Amino acid sequence: MEFLKTCVLRRNACNAVCFWRSRAVQKLSVRKISTTSPRSTVMPAWVIDKYGKNEVLRFTQNMMIPVIHYPNEVIIKVHAASVNPIDVNMRSGYGATALNIKRDPLHIKTKGEEFPLTLGRDVSGVVMECGLDVRYFKPGDEVWAAVPPWKQGTLSEFVVVSGNEVSLKPKSLTHTQAASLPYVALTAWSAINKVGGLNDKNCTGKRVLILGASGGVGTFAIQVMKAWGAHVTAVCSQDASELVRKLGADDVVDYKSGSVEEQLKSLKPFDFILDNVGGSTETWALNFLKKWSGATYVTLVTPFLLNMDRLGIADGMLQTGVTVGSKALKRSQVGRERGREAGSPLSREPDAELDPRTLRSRPERKAEALTH
């Protein structure tokens, strides 16, 4: 009997040791991703609970503060954020089909799981917390970033982003100025440099046409092109002509004073056209490229997301492919026609010629801005 008791005690002791050893190994195998514990506090934010017009906007004090889920993420305390045209479109449901695939590629979540959805793509603020794999930032650093449209936005007190989406904020800019630049700067840079192939070495003397020149992308593009020595023709309204001339535009075409197509016929053809407008402009804009010269037309308005919203995933992608293919065949003799591609000018201090003050700050009108 004593022998049996001893065996039972030894077995229980062994099981206990094995159990605790297993727990210890389990703890060691779980990699920490952040130096702080998960938080459950709330923050103020502008959100939408469904797609629609401006009445779907809701200000809440009870949005959950984001936490770090991956070791390369950074939490930023927002000091300034801005509203872009894509925010207005996303509020109405633009791109929801494609963006939800990006958010949930395995289709685990039910429809509407993206809500409450925070809008806003630009942020300038201060790093509050870093994942353990983040090497180039630390808490207290002033940073700026452009947040991808499939992630929760920046119209909130805090936002979590990947470390590769963040750069140190230039010391020459205030938070308000810095928040006006990232998304439009990345868009303009990708169109000009990554897609258009232009840079400070090959742009001198090039003739450039910018359609929709007075918006965020257009004003940034004018300044970059002029800094690189290009001749810039800007298409905008008469109200904005003084602005674009101050930024360096050589010629200004007022789209309200008559047909833009007719007005451009008196000018020489262009090496590069940046189309921020889309729609019917594409039907005539390509005619103003230099023939057989490698001239490039870049549009920022593509049918891809709209086709997916309207026709679904498979049919939408097919329709987009047919549209792009037919355009390429029909206009191959004119020049290159390109869509948008990503790039990053945010890792450097802005040149002295670039003036972020051209983008006005209206912090008291965030919600109203989404109506335009």
From TrEMBL:
GO cellular component: mitochondrial matrix; mitochondrial outer membrane
Region Disordered, residue ranges: 329-372
PROSITE patterns per UniProt: QOR_ZETA_CRYSTAL
Primary site of residence: mitochondrion
Record keywords: Membrane, Mitochondrion, Mitochondrion outer membrane, NADP, Neurogenesis, Nucleotide-binding, Oxidoreductase, Transit peptide, Ubiquinone biosynthesis
Pathway(s) the chain acts in: Cofactor biosynthesis; ubiquinone biosynthesis
GO biological process, one term: nervous system development
Keyword Nucleotide-binding tagged: yes
Pfam families to which the protein is assigned, alphabetical: ADH_N (PF08240), ADH_zinc_N (PF00107)
Catalytic activity: a 3-demethylubiquinone + NADPH + 2 H(+) = a 3-demethylubiquinol + NADP(+); 3-demethylubiquinone-10 + NADH + 2 H(+) = 3-demethylubiquinol-10 + NAD(+); 3-demethylubiquinone-10 + NADPH + 2 H(+) = 3-demethylubiquinol-10 + NADP(+); a 3-demethylubiquinone + NADH + 2 H(+) = a 3-demethylubiquinol + NAD(+)
Amino acid composition bias (Basic and acidic residues), ranges on this chain: 348-372
Gene3D superfamilies: Medium-chain alcohol dehydrogenases, catalytic domain, NAD(P)-binding Rossmann-like Domain
Enoyl reductase (ER) domain segment(s): 52-329
UniProt entry tagged with the keyword NADP: yes
Annotated localization: Mitochondrion matrix; Mitochondrion outer membrane
GO molecular function terms attached to this record: NADH dehydrogenase (quinone) (non-electrogenic) activity; NADPH dehydrogenase (quinone) activity; nucleotide binding; zinc ion binding
Family designation: Belongs to the zinc-containing alcohol dehydrogenase family. Quinone oxidoreductase subfamily.
Subunit structure: Interacts with RTN4, UQCRC1 and UQCRC2.
Job description of the protein: NAD(P)H oxidoreductase involved in the ubiquinone biosynthetic pathway. Required for the O-methyltransferase activity of COQ3. Able to catalyze the oxidoreduction of 3-demethylubiquinone into 3-demethylubiquinol in vitro. However, it is unclear if 3-demethylubiquinone constitutes a substrate in vivo. May also play a role in the regulation of retinal ganglion cell (RGC) neurite outgrowth, and hence in the development of the inner retina and optic nerve. Appears to be a potent inhibitor of regeneration following spinal cord injury.
Protein name: NAD(P)H oxidoreductase RTN4IP1, mitochondrial
Taxonomic lineage: Eukaryota, Metazoa, Chordata, Craniata, Vertebrata
